[in-house]
């Protein structure tokens, strides 16, 4: 049982423990579901080549020894002696050739399996990460999470190859060598070979375990450096606007300095390990050579037998050299697996119920949204939602207003089932969202956020993302509905124009229109506008509002608004304060009430006049 402890996993402050046997079981199961072509045939053929190759590797020195003994004997007819010697040499050459070529053929046969398993591990972990909650992703650095998935998947491939082609074959070779040395020569040679390997392995494992702390520190520093660099590159505008290039560079340099210090310690300890390994091997060879030489002198063995014994031990030491490296890399691979396995242990906050159903067909008027006595508390906060109830009837627009922290965004997340209520129900067309299949719900709801994030791809790709398989005509129609047509026609590449990372080649208004077009292409029953124009200038905001008014036709709309002037035409306005709906009604009625909404309106009106 291999247990490793690490406190720097995906969940901050949580001690990560990896069960070696459980990890090996996971590796085996991964191979079976890797979908590699001819999986069973390839596994059987690869393992057969391993076994045959090891047997021939151990047997070849004894054939070589017989040939040398035949030469040393030098008795009998010259022709018979020549043919006997040539026969032995031919056999030895063929066996050596096959045992040398076997690993290459083995790798060629097994590579599709190992690559499919690696891809499967990365794909499953990536899909699992995407299924995790919004809160989880908000607490993670993108670069660190990407590195966890990448290193974890590569460790799966390395561990598979190590156990199947290095550790397993080396153990088989050791057993076969001990048996043949005892049978062909003497039990003392077998005992020496076994003893040398045991001492070598124990010493290697002990020093490697000591070195593992340095490797773990290297990993942590590498992850920090990746997180810092990706974070700074993604937010390069913020870095440049505050003149923080030097600060960001210093933070990256500090992470690399930690990595460098750990790497120096790791390399120094590796030199010590290699020196001790060479010493143990040399002692083992000296003992075997001395015993065999004395036996030859006393007539107990022939010269060829001595050569065979030394060659067997040399052949055994070659994979032992790799074994030392392999053990260190296996331990490193287990460290790499720690974060990935811990990530896969994280349970998604939102999962489909076993009896989840599809959303009933709509009538084209929009969805009916109902919050019934909904309660929700954020971790570490006192505020949340407390007994919120309202109904958004089909085809109507309901606006949510209130100060920061009043619960507006929480209601949006609940309406899209990014989170579940702790009490009460959120319904769409009469069905509790928790009873719906997530795919069915998400096909009926579309979001236009305050900051529309776009993929580093073309305009067509970003708009069409809402509807897989959408035709060019459908994508263009959605773009025209979002009033993007003139802008697209002005571009040399048209819909094939790249938008840059997160859409930074576009202006704020252009990004918003792409977000609206994407939402319209999805043709949702419920359109959610989460402060979709608050970051825009007045002229752009007015143009986008005109587009949004057209987009709201024929669907229910939930609007989170900062500027009250943008939702004055809403069918109902809900005023939130500290998780409660304190006022509700139309714009005129709320002004006449002269309460919280009227106070917010007066403050914004005064600001607009001053501006």
Q: Can you characterise this structure?
A:
This protein is α/β, with parallel strands linked by helices and 611 residues long. The protein is built from 18 helices and twelve strands. The protein has helices at 20-32, 39-73, 78-131, 134-138, 142-184, 187-234, 236-241, 245-297, 303-345, 408-415, 438-444, 459-464, 472-481, 485-489, 508-521, 538-551, 587-593, 596-610; strands spanning 3-6, 16-19, 369-377, 384-392, 397-401, 423-428, 431-432, 445-448, 526-530, 556-560, 572-577, 580-585. It has a six-stranded mixed β-sheet with strand order 8-9-10-5-11-12, with helices on both faces. It has a four-stranded antiparallel β-sheet with strand order 4-3-6-7, covered by helices on one side. The longest helix has 54 residues, at 78-131. The protein is elongated and about 120 Å long. The relative contact order is 0.08. The model is unreliable at 1-16 (pLDDT under 50).
